[in-house]
Amino acid sequence: MTAATARPVTAATAADVAARLRQADAVTILCHVRPDPDTLGSGLALGQALATLGKSVEVAYPGDLQLPASMAALPGSDLLVAPAAVVGHPTAVSVDAATLGRLEGLADVFTAAPTRIVIDHHVSNTGFGTVDLIDPASDCTAALVLEIVDALDVDLTESIATCIYAGLVTDTGSFKWARPASFGIAARLLQAGVDGARWSRQLLDSHPFAWFRVVGEVLAHACLVESACGGAGLVYTTVPHELLSAMPWDESESLIDLVRTAREVEVAAVFKESEPGRWNVSLRSKDSIDVTTIARAFGGGGHVRAAGYSATGSAAEVTAALVALLD
Ligand SMILES: [Mn+2]
Known about the structure:
Blueprint: H1 14-23, E1 26-31, H2 37-52, E2 56-60, H3 69-72, E3 91-95, H4 107-112, E4 115-120, E5 131-134, H5 141-151, H6 158-171, H7 180-191, H8 196-204, H9 210-220, E6 223-225, E7 234-239, H10 241-244, H11 255-259, E8 267-275, E9 278-285, H12 291-297, E10 301-302, E11 306-312, H13 315-326
Parallel strand pairs: 1-2, 1-3, 3-4, 4-5, 7-8
Antiparallel strand pairs: 6-7, 8-9, 9-11, 10-11
Helix pairs in contact: 1-5, 2-5, 2-6, 5-6, 6-7, 6-8
The chain binds manganese (II) ion.
């Protein structure tokens, strides 16, 4: 299962984006729903850089979920405004969202802006702005934001560097699958004063005790389908709503990293019941299968080795649909 890589239809450079941002007096920066450290770090890093240049800045993400403490502690979080308080400036920037839909309730704010800048690294992103900086060769969106900060001639302060580091360390799984350029970027960020050990622990290696019970149940109920994917194998598990809601929402993000360690399989899936009957599905692969093709079959997207989609139905229904596609 290999898909042709979808390339952006328009391709801007960091210098192009910086030129547009220089012209703006006020900028609205939008992060994707259920923000992760890459989208939020990108938004806060860019927001701080633009504030340094004297611009009015607002940063927002859709939904009313409170940020987990680990991310709320990122420098620049004072730039965050609630969705209802978003002004919607004539220049809007989307960071790390693979589709307009990932901005959910704030998509209208984005489309209403005359100048719409998309900054992203998802291979499935075909571009939805008037200026699209989409680079699947970048390990994270935050690294693209660093290029823009440089193009704006803004000093790389410890605060800006910390936000970029947050995106880099999480999207590379603590540099486990980082490409060569990312190590150079990491060195520069640490030299700018980032406390790498603190942020790695805070963003990746810290869980509430309640997470242990969830992990125990989720792993105990995992299913192995060795015949799936032409014999490459699938492992999947479900996290029912009552279990998911027993822990902070961001804690479920790391479950897929445990499930995908199953040696017998190429593809891993975790079904998370965000609302009764509504599921967010995370997909991962190791070497040979492009999981964006699976995600796209269900209306989702993502990266070659990490993708996702949404589904509705009972646990039996949504898992059977995936198994039927792959087995
Ligand atoms: Mn990302």
